[in-house]
Design brief:
With 555 residues, the chain is of the alpha/beta class. It is 37% helix and 21% strand. Helix 8 (192-202) packs across helix 9.
Amino acid sequence: MIKMGDKPLIIQSDLSILLDVHAPNAHQARNDLIAFAELIKSPEHVHTYVVTPLSLWNASSAGVDTDEVLRRLEKYSRFEIPQTVLFHISEISQRFGAITLESYQDNKEYYFITFHHERIKKEVLSRPWFASMLTPFNNGFLIKIFSRGEFKLQLIKLGYPVDDRIPIVVSKKISASFKEVSSSGVPFVLRDYQKNAADALLGDYSPGTGYGTIVLPCGSGKTVVGMEIITRLQTKTLILTTNISAVHQWISELYDKLNIPMNSVAEYTGMKKELKDITVATYQVLTYRKDKESEFIHMNVIKEEDWGLIIFDEVHMLPAPVFKITAEMQSAYRLGLTATLIREDHREDEVFSLVGPKRFDVPWSELERSGWIAEAECVEIRVHLPTDKEIAYAIASKRDKYRIASENERKIEIVKELIENHQQDFILVIGQYLTQLKSIAKELGAPLITGSTPENRRDQLYQDFRDGKQRILVVSKVANFAIDLPDASVAIQVSGSFGSRQEEAQRLGRILRPKKQNSHFYSIVTRFSSEEEFAAHRQKFLSEQGYHYRMEVYS
């Protein structure tokens, strides 16, 4: 029995929840809370969570129903829970399951829709688009199989998530298992949280399982989770990722850790187009078309294959056109991998509907304490704008102000000083603007990697960095995602994409592979400029994960 004064939660009528981290049961309460509430901020003493429709539906899809949510809140709440909160949670969470989508006997043309609440049925059918999609039949409705994804997508936008209970169709079988010792000579052991992530996605293989999103920090081995699911399902697999370097990295990892036949993994990119039992492709190749009026020609090639599993690497980067193909490929197992479900375009509900709900996540700080990712010190360094740029900054437009502040040439002095202070570390200098990066690369005598760097050259530079032949790389945003540079321990950010929280998280992630020494993340920001505001917004996600920025002023 928890004493009232020891209870760690303060639940407020605006659906925010304050967690007193010093309360005796705070850790247990946090573990129970993250199933149905999203962490907003986590300073030293009180963490703030918020209950949202999507967080409640994620919980419902994972088996944490309304009664269980309310039981957990009652267990830990220091004060009486506001009546409005109880009502809202009951109303919103019970929407999941109010509409079910199931197979209709052995029919290959239709699925069966059931509305379990008459009011919801009337609301949906009052809209012509939905009414035109549904044919009344046996106390329910029939819907064309090919309409499955779009129907779910439009309903969640209306505020009604569909409980999709249609069994996954088993596709062509392949042979895949983990090696006891990888090809690189390292003994392989699956970590507990990686196994738990796979369990959460696949469940007992019953209808309603086999699709969803796994949220794990950069450097924690999301690729291994994908491979674990491949070994369990042993089915023809399509892996979609962000760039060609990431494609090559996936292929290397697959051959390194899995017992699979040689030549069973194919690359489908702008450089090379093959389809095999396991195919790794870029989002870019799927979204390629000759002009705005033309077809996405490579999407048709992909759709015609009989995929049993689709892995969406860095699912928060899923391009809008790929949502369409995902809506049409709902019969395969689907796995989304990401370090953060934050999308700057706010399309998280589409990821929920088409790829699947969040099935598993672990706080970054928890894996850091366990030694699975590196401890990182975050430092923001403020630097004054040169006097001769002050007038230009003052009269510039908002966008130009940001660029002038971002490209502040005094940042080069700080970069050089930081590199001097980290002579034994492997260092990434990361930025947004190519002119700035070219100047820094020239000043440092270091190679520069941008979107225009040829793929062979890019891969060679990454490999030289991994092999210890190159200690410093200057990189643009092409290195934000899906690049494994395990020895990188210092990242120096000289400019960023305005207020992108996910970019900040991904850049920190480049240095989170576990290693003997701590990692250091430096963000250099022009003082008294608009860059300060955007930097604060970028840091928000990392603050939520328990990271704290130390402030320094460079004079």
